[in-house]
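Example record used in the benchmark description.
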Amino acid sequence: MSTDQVLAHGHDLATKVSLLFRKRAEFAQQQYKERLAKATADNGIGEILGNPAAAAKVWTDWYAYAVDATQRSVLFWDTIRQRGNNYVQHMQAGLPPVLHFDYETVVDGRKLERPVNYALVRIVPPAGVTIDPKRRKVKNYQLVNG
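Model output (C-alpha cells):
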C-alpha cells in the first residue's frame, strides 16, 4: 500500500469511529434524559424543578429539620452535662447509696447449705405508710430452709 492509501484508510477509519462514537453518545444522552425524567417524576423532583414555590418548601423543610436537630443536640448534651455534674457530686459525697430503704432480711444466702453471695430482703415501709395487701401483685410464698 502506498502512503496515500494508508492515509486515506486511516482517515476513513477515524471517520467511522467518530460517527460510531457520536451515535453511541447520542443514544447514551437520550437514555440519560429518559431515566432522569422518570426518576424526577417518581420522587417529586420534577415538581420542584418546575415550581419555585415547591423549591422554597424544600428549603423551609430543611431549615425546620436543621433547627429540630440542633435543639435535640443541645438537649442531649445538656443531659450529658447534668449527668456528669451529678456523678462528680456523688463522688465528692463519698459514694453514698443512691437508694436507701430500711429492710428486713428474709434469707441470708451466706447461711444456706451451699452459701451464695445473695440475700432476700423485704423493704420496710416508712413510718406512716400502710401497705394494702389486696393491691400487691406478688403473692406471698413460704420459704423452706433446707
